[in-house]
Amino acid sequence: MFHAHSHDDHDGSHGHDHHGHDHGHDHGGGPATSRLGFAWRVGVGVAVLLAAGLTAAAISVPAGQAIVVTRFGAPTRILTEPGLHWRIPAPIEASIPVDLRLRTTSTGLQDVGTRDGLRVLMQAYVAWQVPNDPARIAQFIRAVRNDPDEAARQIRSFVGSALQVTASSFDLADLVNTDPAAIRLPAFEQRLRDQVATSLLDGYGITVQAVGLERLSLPEATLAATVGRMRSERETVAAERTAEGLRAAAQIRSDAARDARITVARARTEAAEIEAASRRGAADINARAYTSDPQLYLLLRSLDTLQTIIGANTRLVLLTDAPPFNVLTDGTAAPAAPQPGPPPPAAISAK
């Protein structure tokens, strides 16, 4: 009886367990589903952690910047190539951006003295940048703690001092002049840049791209002295040019008088030669005329003489039988040749 009862109880227990197993299977298998959901949640969490770690470890270097990677505050490397880089996530490593773009700063008006003892107001500008060089970047960070404003302030201080030194090597006429060829502004700016560039590169790791004078003006006293000097220079130039003009005019007049004297002397010589030639020609003609017909020649000569000495208002009292007046009554000259000796006297009166 006892054995049969135990068997029956065993059968009942078995049947109950089987029924419970069938019931659990019909509802989807709870333990397996729970394990799958837990694994999925763990995978998602690990992916999120990996993504967060990658994000924390990624460094993006944009163009125009450099990234200084520090480990526990001490710089370990400097990234200058644009793109994606990696580091150990914080708090082990951190990154510091450094701006490498070109910047400009201006000194404002500075009162400086020139070599000739005059005062002038100058304002200079500087174009500068941190070079794409890890050593210079580290030097810049040590000098100004990566503060561009502090760097600009110290640059202005350097340029102000350099203006004083550079201006003392130039006269005011080298900077302000009415003659463009006398102005030496490019030389002034080059000397100023040489002084500033060396100091900033050695002290701060900064390269200077350009230095120039942005503004140049004169104080009232210097302006008056400059205007007076320029007036004196203009007056000197005007006096020199006037003297040159007077010398040129005197030279021209002297040359003209010399040429006139030479021309007049040459003309007189030629006139004398022409007159002598004409006299010779006239003498030859008279000689030929007298040779061909002496009586006609004497008649013509007598008429020429009368035409010369008798005018419209001339009255003559003369002997009509004396030559050359005998032709007035006789009509012909005496055939005999004139006797030597003075001609008979004749009275001539003229009104």
Biggest β-sheet description: 4 strands, antiparallel
**Rounded mean pLDDT score:** 79
Task: Quote the distance from N terminus to C terminus.
Answer: 219 Å
What is the N-to-C succession of helices and strands?
Answer: HHEEEEEEEEHHHEHHEHE
- Stretches where pLDDT falls below 50 for ≥5 residues? 1-28, 339-351
The quaternary structure here is single chain
Instruction: Report the C-alpha radius of gyration, rounded.
Output: 65 Å
**Overall SS class:** alpha+beta
User: Number of DSSP helices?
Assistant: 8
What spatial form do the alpha-carbon principal axes imply? rod-shaped
Helical amount? 55-70%
Number of strands: 11
Strand content: 15-25%
